[in-house]
Design a protein that fits this description.
The chain has 447 residues and is of the alpha/beta class. It has twelve helices and 23 strands. The chain binds NADPH dihydro-nicotinamide-adenine-dinucleotide phosphate.
Length: 447
């Protein structure tokens, strides 16, 4: 008999926590999970999944327009936000059910309440109950960061954006990262007037600058407004309920909705980590390669550790934790060549080093590009060009970075990322016969 109530207690039923709980239980561990909000976490409930559905919904605006050039007699179509919103939220409910079922099927006890840490092996639930566990896994994710300035309380974050009662006419988005560019695209397709207020002079920091420039160019041509060097100063609420958004370096921007997309910070507030003596680093839980904190019984995975804030990374970390602690197969996560995407209109896909990073790391590099107008855009009369970029180590020919902005770029990039991860060279790509006609064939035809 164990001296503890559970072998493993997971705080947070998001992507990383659910994977760790399920796999640990399948190895025979007695597992509990506490979740104060909804099972599924940010990705499923108010992140990647509903966002992607909105991206699909938004893209119909272009598809319906383009369809006419392909001979379809499309009557004037109207868009009903409430229908899309409710269908998306219903699917989120369905997915939450599936996640809960997975935990149930694996005999994981789910506490639908907040849990805090009282000591290395002790937790307290919001109901007052104390439980003990041989291991505690913190998988509480991250939380939107809102800058502190007068009137900031009038804005919303990605936590609320999926529930809007009506579509705003004028949207101001603070930030120039993933969420800002993705929601700029979504709202713009829904015919909202969108302005991105970026505190510096750069969007999507970390992505290859040529690809980012292409997105900026296309976004501008679609009617999205950008204000650079425009940090937030003040939000003034007007009598009619609308707002005037004061930003640095220019006239105030009228808005009906302000969205903060200004980064996400590890969700550690009030968790009691200090009571157990868990060390932190820059606001995140500090862990080793096996996701173990400085306290032997406490581990952490996912955004709360701020390694790479991506769902598939959290899932890998959760899996590696379970394999290591309960599966008898110690495993670390390989963070090299993790592919990523921005679901803007059009989307970006990337893996490996940007041109700038590659130059710094390798010195001698070769860059190949393909700058083309996809066939579908040509017939649609849509003047929107795609850009693929391959960065190679000049000495070995090895592909060290691949970047794309194009319709379906994330779908194509996922497959190409296997080749980059495997260390293939430009010659290996060129040895592969093109699949014609496709956009993906540009990958083996780059010059
Ligand atoms: P990002 O880190 O992508 O971008 C944050 C943006 O906010 C940057 O432009 C940053 O500017 C700006 N910013 C930060 N602090 C302030 C401030 N105080 N005032 C004004 N501007 C500020 O964060 P997001 O919120 O867009 O997304 C959070 C994370 O979620 C991402 O990092 C990503 O890991 C994940 N995510 C992934 C998605 C995907 O995979 N497709 C989609 C959505 C989110 P600066 O560049 O100057 O620092």
């Amino acid at each position: 008999m164990s001296d503890y109530d559970f072998d493993l207690f997971v705080i947070g039923a998001g992507s990383g926590g659910v994977r760790a709980a399920r796999v640990s239980a399948s190895y025979g561990a007695k597992v509990a999970v506490a979740e104060e909000y909804r099972v599924g976490g940010t990705c499923v409930i108010r992140g990647c999944v509903p966002k992607k559905m909105l991206v699909y919904g938004a893209h119909f605006a272009e598809d319906l327009k383009d369809a006419r050039r392909f001979g379809w007699n499309v009557p004037d179509c109207t868009f009903d936000w409430n229908v899309l919103r409710d269908n998306v939220l219903a699917d989120v409910d369905r997915l939450e059910g599936l996640y809960t079922q997975t935990l149930d099927n694996n005999k994981v006890t789910v506490f639908r309440e907040r849990a805090t840490i009282e000591g290395p092996n002790t937790l307290r639930l919001a109901s007052g109950q104390t439980v003990t566990a041989k291991y505690i896994l913190v998988a509480t994710g991250a939380w939107p960061q809102v800058p502190d300035f007068p009137g900031a309380e009038h804005g919303i974050t990605s936590n609320e954006v999926f529930h809007l009662e009506t579509l705003p006419k004028r949207v101001v988005i603070f930030g120039g990262g993933y969420i800002a560019n993705e929601f700029a695209g979504i709202f713009n397709e829904f015919s909202c007037n969108v302005t991105l207020a970026v505190r510096g002079d750069q969007i999507l920091r970390g992505y290859d600058s040529q690809i980012v420039d292409r997105l900026l160019h296309i976004s501008l041509s679609k009617g999205i407004n950008f204000r650079f060097n425009a940090p937030p100063e003040r939000i003034e609420k007007l009598e009619d309920g609308s707002m005037l958004v004061h930003v640095g370096g220019g006239a105030p921007i009228p808005a009906d909705m302000v969205l903060f997309a200004t980064g996400r910070v590890p969700n550690v507030k009030g968790l009691g980590l200090d009571k157990a003596g868990v060390e932190m680093a820059r606001g995140a839980i500090k862990v080793d390669g096996y996701s173990k904190t400085n306290v032997d019984s406490i581990y952490a995975v996912g955004d709360v550790t701020d390694r790479i804030q991506l769902t598939p990374v959290a899932i890998r970390e959760g899996q590696a934790f379970a394999d290591t602690v309960f599966g008898g197969t110690p495993r670390t996560v390989d963070y090299g060549n993790v592919p990523s995407a921005v679901f803007s209109h059009p989307p970006i896909g990337a893996v490996g080093l940007s041109e700038g990073e590659a130059r710094n790391s390798y010195g001698n590099i070769k860059v190949y590009t393909s700058d083309f107008r996809p066939m579908k855009n040509v017939l649609a009369g849509r003047n929107e060009r795609s850009l693929y970029k391959m960065i190679c180590d000049a000495d070995s020919g090895k592909v060290v970075g691949l970047h794309m902005i194009s319709p379906d770029a994330p779908e194509i990039l996922q497959a190409a990322a296997i080749a980059v991860k495997a260390g293939l060279t430009k010659a290996d790509f060129d040895d592969t016969v093109a699949l014609h006609p496709s956009m993906a064939e540009e990958l083996v035809l780059m010059r």
